[in-house]
Automatic annotation (TrEMBL):
Name of protein: Gram-positive cocci surface proteins LPxTG domain-containing protein
UniProt cross-references to InterPro entries, sorted A to Z: Ig-like_fold (IPR013783), LPXTG_anchor (IPR019931)
Keyword DNA repair recorded: no
Segments crossing the lipid bilayer: 251-271
Entry's Gene Ontology BP terms: carbohydrate metabolic process
Gene3D superfamilies found in the cross-reference section: Immunoglobulins
Signal peptide extent: 1-29
Keywords: Cell wall, Membrane, Peptidoglycan-anchor, Secreted, Signal, Transmembrane, Transmembrane helix
Gram-positive cocci surface proteins LPxTG domain sequence ranges: 246-274
Amino acid sequence: MTLRPISPFVGVLLLTLGLVGLFARPAAAADWTVAPAETSFGSGRQDFRYTLNPGGSQVDAVAVFNNGTAPLALTLRASDGITLSRTTVTVAAGDTADVPFTLALPRDAHPGDRLGGIVATGGGSEATVPVRLRVGGPLTPSLAVEDVQVDYSGGDAVVAYVVRNTGNAVLSAQPTVSVSGPFGRWATRSGRLPDTPALLPGRTWKGTARVPGVTPAGRLSAIVELLPLVTDAAGSVAPLPPVKRTGHAIAMPWLLVLAVLVVLAGAVVLVRRRSRAAVGRSHRPATRTIKLR
């Protein structure tokens, strides 16, 4: 399995592109499934979760369930740092096989969150069990907002932005978006926005928000604010200081501009007429009244 590094810690449990999007559903094929085996960690687990210090190791097992009516042959592979006791397994119909494995960290492993997995392939299907790891040491959770773009049309502003995980811990965030005119006047906020997905270190996510009822006041300012949410080893979620970024766009109040132009044009016409009338009076010949005695 080819893994993409997300820090200088290369060679242990990094994000595999093939794993993205698989974690919200069971690791199942048509007639077989793979899942964490029942061990001292308990039963009914949906994924593997560990917290290890650099140089540490963990032994566990993955279970293969054959729900079909014929023997099942599967090939197993795993992220770097995970050593499987075997890479092929044959399971009788209606039976289950446990495959032990060992996860080992190098002594120079950098602290932070990692994501990998164990992949089973067979019968034209593939299923993955995610492995989530937190390497002990200082955590520096951090998010950044980038590339804020504003598009105004018909009274609504659509704000697009990019969220980047710049720290070493998995983070999600609560976003809020507002749009205002010059000097913060006529500010309008978006409705309640869904939280961002959990982002691994180094990953990005593109978000959009529609802000209705925006006053076209010339130069618009869109502010995207994120409240980062970090999950500790015990599963508790805590907020971090918010981060924000501003983008700009031009939205001219064309009806108002047109009205002002009409008024100005009328004023110019009126001034010219009065000026011509004054010039005409100044060029009239002078007349003298002669009184007859």
